């Protein structure tokens, strides 16, 4: 059933007829600085409360495409810089944050976040005005929102073509509607520039630029299936659906964005930290390209040797005690974690770190991968994401960190590494206490010259295979 409702019929009751909840102090929301902008870092519920409980606010979303446009459009850059709240949209922004050593709490993309915001607005008796997209699309989007969000009050609709051509008329209609929230869907950068230039004339206390949301709601553009969205690959779905229109944005734009994000991450660091991050990004990027044939062969060997996924993802503890998912090629059978407890007594390594030379959980291919440290190569991706460094202490398991002596926590002050002092000195043959000493010595004296020396020594350690099992 479709609600056939004309724009004129979306009229709000007079604001004084609606009982509004008492305004409370808006909760604070943390931020991460990306591309010179303060980007919100909080869970969706906190951001919704912040926007609805606060004063007049203009909201923008930042994704990879936005960052690329930002660099070449001064009017858009000004609009973004003056927005009251900027929300992170998509995996690209998350990766850019990780390059700086931060991990965003949530992906607050407009397509998912805006309906959540409107559900809370409906509960509070607030009204919304929809402006943008082709003629008729805003009406269909309003129909869908009314079906999905019972009690939502639509104050009016207006298209983004003829309806937006006369700015004075559009603003007059929006203000006359009594809407509390204005949602504009005219694409980047037009929607954000329009909102910024007219902010002082618009009556709604909350305004958002939401891109293609109306097209999704109206059914004009099919959204990616849930499994694709959970995998953070919605951009690939949109490319597949609209290859001619989206090729430039995603195929060229994503590469451009990642290069730009890397430059900003390096610029945000200082001194040795900047040099180290620059080395990490350069070496990791080069390694991904140069080793791609080896990575593909290893992945194929793992898949053919035993059932289960190619990659093994395990929670490790990173810089400042933050957990992350470390990647490896799977070198064990899929029930390895369940069998770990039964093997702890047979560890060949002193201290809290478990290692068994004859571990029965390791596959035939896995033994080869471990012998030459090929199983560790997927951690190059962790390096690109800013969760690890090329050189640093070994990333430990949560239960290992919980058992650390107090002095060992100093090793968590830097990013964990793919290689390091203990790796080139015997790896599994080194006990926990000696490893702590090595890591703390590295933390106290690390320089880019020391990192280069350890990287060169790593090649010798891999060929010798000492402690690799």
Tell me briefly what this model is.
One of its GO terms (molecular function) is phosphotransferase activity, for other substituted phosphate groups. This protein is of the alpha/beta class.
What does the model show?
The chain has 21 helices and 12 strands. With about 475 residues, the chain is of the alpha/beta class. It has 2 domains: about 5-220, no CATH class; about 270-465, no CATH class. It has a 6-stranded parallel beta sheet, sandwiched between helices. Strands 1-2 form a two-stranded antiparallel ribbon. A two-stranded antiparallel sheet has the order 9-10. The protein is elongated, with a radius of gyration of 26 Å.
Give the spatial strand order of the biggest sheet: 4-3-8-7-5-6
| Total number of domains | 2
How large is the share of residues in beta strands? Answer: 5-15%
What oligomeric arrangement do these chains adopt?
single chain
Helix content: 40-55%
Backbone structural class: alpha/beta
Sheet of most strands: 6 strands, parallel
Q: Distance N terminus to C terminus? A: 63 Å
Summary tags:
469 residues; alpha/beta; 2 domains; six-stranded parallel beta sheet; two-stranded antiparallel sheet; 47% helix; elongated; disordered N terminus
Task: Give the topology.
Elements: E1 30-34, E2 37-41, H1 44-53, E3 57-62, H2 64-70, H3 74-81, E4 85-88, H4 91-99, H5 110-123, E5 127-132, H6 137-148, E6 153-158, H7 162-165, H8 167-176, E7 181-185, H9 190-198, E8 206-209, H10 213-218, H11 226-230, H12 234-241, H13 243-268, H14 271-290, H15 292-305, E9 311-317, E10 323-329, H16 336-343, H17 364-371, H18 379-384, E11 389-391, H19 398-402, E12 417-419, H20 432-445, H21 448-464
Parallel strand pairs: 3-4, 3-8, 5-6, 5-7, 7-8, 11-12
Antiparallel strand pairs: 1-2, 9-10
Helix pairs in contact: 2-13, 3-9, 4-13, 12-13, 13-14, 15-17
């Amino acid at each position: 059933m479709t609600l056939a409702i004309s724009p004129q019929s979306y009229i709000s009751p007079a604001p004084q007829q609606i009982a509004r909840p008492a305004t409370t102090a808006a909760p604070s929301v943390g931020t991460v600085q990306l591309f010179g902008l303060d980007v919100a870092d909080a869970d969706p519920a906190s951001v919704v409360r912040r926007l609805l409980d606060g004063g007049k606010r203009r909201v923008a979303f930042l994704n990879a495409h936005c960052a690329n446009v930002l660099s070449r459009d001064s009017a858009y850059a000004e609009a973004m810089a003056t927005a009251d709240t900027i929300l992170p949209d998509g995996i690209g922004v998350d990766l850019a944050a990780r390059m700086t050593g931060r991990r965003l709490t949530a992906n607050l993309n407009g397509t998912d976040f805006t309906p959540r915001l409107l559900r809370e607005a409906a509960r509070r008796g607030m009204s919304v005005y929809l402006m943008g997209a082709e003629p008729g699309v805003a009406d269909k989007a309003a129909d869908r929102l009314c079906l999905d969000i019972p009690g939502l009050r639509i104050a009016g609709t207006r298209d983004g073509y003829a309806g937006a051509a006369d700015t004075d008329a559009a603003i007059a209609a929006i203000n006359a509607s009594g809407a509390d929230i204005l949602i504009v869907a005219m694409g980047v950068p037009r929607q954000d520039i329009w909102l910024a230039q007219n902010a002082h004339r618009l009556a709604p206390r909350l305004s958002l630029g939401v891109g293609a949301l109306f097209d999704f709601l109206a059914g004009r553009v099919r959204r990616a299936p849930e499994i694709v969205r959970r995998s953070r690959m919605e951009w690939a779905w949109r490319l597949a659906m609209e290859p001619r229109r989206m090729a430039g944005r995603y195929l060229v734009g994503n590469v451009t964005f990642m290069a730009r994000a890397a430059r900003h991450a390096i610029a945000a660091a200082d001194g040795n930290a900047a040099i180290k991050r620059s080395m990490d990004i350069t070496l990791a990027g080069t390694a991904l390209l140069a080793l791609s044939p080896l990575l593909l062969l290893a992945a194929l060997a793992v898949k053919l040797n035993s059932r289960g996924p190619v990659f093994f993802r395990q929670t490790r503890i990173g810089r400042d005690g933050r957990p992350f998912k470390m990647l490896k090629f799977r070198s064990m059978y899929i029930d390895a974690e369940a069998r770990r407890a039964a093997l702890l007594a047979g560890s060949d390594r002193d201290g809290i770190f478990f290692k068994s030379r004859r571990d029965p959980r390791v596959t035939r291919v896995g033994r080869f991968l471990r012998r030459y440290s090929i199983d560790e190569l997927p951690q190059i991706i962790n390096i690109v994401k800013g969760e690890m460094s090329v050189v640093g202490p070994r990333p430990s398991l949560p239960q290992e960190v919980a058992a650390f002596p107090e002095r060992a926590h100093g090793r968590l002050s830097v990013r964990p590494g793919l290689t390091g002092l203990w790796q080139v000195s015997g790896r599994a043959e080194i006990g926990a206490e000696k490893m702590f000493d090595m890591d703390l010595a590295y933390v106290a004296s690390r320089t880019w010259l020391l990192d280069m020396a350890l990287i060169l020594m790593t090649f010798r350690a891999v060929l010798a295979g000492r402690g690799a099992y």
